[in-house]
Amino acid sequence: MDFGRVPEAMLSDIDFKLPAEPLFNKQVLKGRPVAHPLTYLGCAKWGRKEWIGKIYPQGTKEANFLDEYVKHFNSIELNATHYQIYGPATIAKWDVKAAGMDFKFCPKVPQSISHFSTLINAGDKTTSFLEGVLAFGEHLGPIFLQLSDKFGPAKRDNLYQYLASLPKDLQFFVELRHPQWFEDEAVRMELFNKLRELNVGAIITDTAGRRDIAHMHLTVPKIFIRFVGNSLHPTDYTRIDDWANRIKYWLDKGLEEVYFFMHMHDEATSPELALYMTEKFEAVCGITVKKPVFVTGDAAVKAPAKVKSSKAAKSGPAKTPAKAQSSKAAKSEPAKAPTKAKSGKAAKSEPAKAPAKLKSSKVAKK
């Protein structure tokens, strides 16, 4: 993923510290841990030839990449569905690879819906997409909608109406990239209140060049994190340390599900950092997650020496996260928790008549 990429020389000067914990999250988390939280870790694609000889055995054919991938991770951010709508037959062939495993496929909404239609008149395509991914059955994880960096708050009505039309028995997350969603507190809080009202999660994307979208707001008691590393730069490890502390804090407050997806500008090194993440899950959160196993034995999980001059080299606090330093979007919420959004108030500019809702997923199975 190249989104948010900056020159390597700049990395040590970026403040990667995660923003302060918003008071908003108290409306979503119950304040006490759940008995059995679910944790999933994966990458964006299984078709990485660079992993042959690393976690895929030498001589692995492309047709067998998914067979190997499921041996190392328990989820995948399925970007393949962003470029094509697949029918149930193809989805079923992928699903069988994870038979008997606690594995989740997290499909990305097709770009024909998210980017080319601006969410208008997208009902038929959405139904076709959902009819396909429902073939994952129990292996279907959250479905995520990524909008382009040109889709700003001026199109909020399109977004809210589209999300309201989606089946309620499926979990959806949305990733927003336009800076105006995060620059103005009123716009930002309207967004998060509306997503909470619709039971739609807000994806948190942690990438070097866009610190504003690492927003820390939970609109459902689940998290979907897209972490963009920098080919095992020392700051990658200190950032993972910070995330482990934050996830532990959320788990203690009642977080139910974790979906953490590893991205790199050079995806060849994603397995190494994913392995480090599994070690932090275990050491900090007390959670055991499936580990990638390397052909020549486990890769070293010890982080390199920290960058002394880097603000990012400061590890996160073990308990309540520290206050953010600079980002406007990272400001903690006012002392008084925001009131619950009244029905329709957050989207008062919407047309009076909402579009017809899509068929429920149960109907779509037919």
Question: What do you see in this structure?
Answer:
The protein is α/β, with parallel strands linked by helices and 366 residues long. It has a single domain (23-346), classed as Protein of unknown function UPF0759 (TIM Barrel, Alpha-Beta Barrel), CATH 3.20.20. The chain has 10 helices and 9 strands. It has helices spanning 65-69, 88-95, 111-114, 123-133, 156-164, 180-183, 185-198, 234-253, 270-285, 361-364; strands spanning 38-43, 75-78, 104-107, 143-146, 172-175, 201-202, 204-206, 222-229, 257-264. Helix 5 links the parallel strand 4 (143-146) and strand 5 (172-175).
Brief summary:
The chain is 26% helix and 12% strand.
What percentage of the residues does DSSP assign to strands (E)? 5-15%
How far apart lie the N and C ends? 36 Å
Structural class: alpha/beta
Q: Report the C-alpha radius of gyration, rounded.
A: 20 Å
Q: What is the strand tally? A: 9
CATH C-level: Alpha Beta
| Overall spatial form | globular
Which fold does the CATH topology refer to? TIM Barrel
